[in-house]
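Bug report (template v2)

What were you trying to do?
Predict the complex of my protein with nicotinamide-adenine-dinucleotide.

What happened?
Run completed; filing so the output is reviewed.

Input:
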Amino acid sequence: MGLLDGKKGVIFGVANDRSIAWAIARKLRGEGADLAFTYLGDAMEKRVRPLAESLGSEIILPCDVTIDAEMDAVFEVLGEEWGGLDILVHSLAFANKEELKGDFANTSREGFALAMDVSAFSLVALSQRARPLMQGREDGASIMAMTYYGAEKVVKNYNVMGVAKAALEASVTYLAEDLGKENIRVNSISPGPIKTLAAMGISDFKAMLDEVSGRAPLRRNATQDDVAGTAVYLASSLSSGVTGENIYVDCGYNILGIS
Ligand code: NAD
C-alpha cells in the first residue's frame, strides 16, 4: 500500500540521475504512482528514457516548454492514455550562463525574456493544459514547482534567475486561487543549493554550497532526496488542505539573520 497508489503523474525536468526531478520521480513511484516523463531534445532523450523505463514508465515524450505544440502533444497523449492526471511536477529552469555572474544590472533584454519564459511562464502554460485533466480527481490534484530563495533575497550571481523565480512564486499563488475551485492544489518547494547540471551554470556555485553547509541549522546541504520527501507530501492527500504555499527544504538556512 503506497500513499500514491493509482495516481497518475507527469514529471518535467529530468536531465540525468542527479536531477531533483529524478529523485522526486523515484519517491513518487515508490509510493505507487504511475509516471510519464518528458525530456528536452534528442540529447536528453538518451539519458531520460532508460531512467524512465527503469521505473516502468511507458509515456516518455519530448517537451521544450518554449514550444506550444510540444506541450500540447504531451497533454494530448496523457488524455488519450490516462484520461486524467493527479500530479504535475515542474522542475525546470533556464538562463544563459553569462547572465548568472557579475552585475544583475547588466542583464540583457533577450536573457531576461528567455529566463522568464522557460522558468516562470512555463508553469502557467503547463497548468493551463493540465487543468482539464485534473478536474474531478478523487483526492484532488497537485501541481508543484521548484523555486529558490534567490526569489526573495539577493543571492550573489543568481541574478535574472532570482527575478524569474519571483515571477514563478507569484504565479503559484495566482494559479492556486484559480485552480483551487476545482480542487487542484498548486505549491512550490524551495530547496537549498544542490549540485546538479542546472546549478553548475551559476558562477561560483561551490561558495553557495559552503555557505549553507557551514551556517544552516542542520549544518549540511539539502539533498535531492530531502526535496523528494516533501514532493511526496505535496502530491498526496497528506497535503489536502495546502495550496499556494512555498515550502523550504534548505536545512533551515532561510530562517537565519546575522550569525
Ligand atoms: P537539472 O539540470 O537536473 O534540471 C533542470 C531541467 O530543466 C533539465 O531537465 C532541463 O532539461 C530542463 N529545461 C531547461 N530548459 C528547458 C526547456 N526549454 N524546456 C523543458 N525543459 C527545460 O537541475 P535541477 O537542479 O534538478 O533543477 C530543477 C529545478 O530545481 C529548477 O527549477 C531549478 O531552478 C530548481 N532548483 C535547483 C536548485 C539547485 O541548487 N540545484 C535549488 C533550488 C531550486
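What did the reviewer find?
Residues 13-15, 19-21, 40, 44, 63-66, 91-94, 118, 146, 148, 191, 193-194, 196-199 surround nicotinamide-adenine-dinucleotide (CB under 6 Å). The mean pLDDT is 97.
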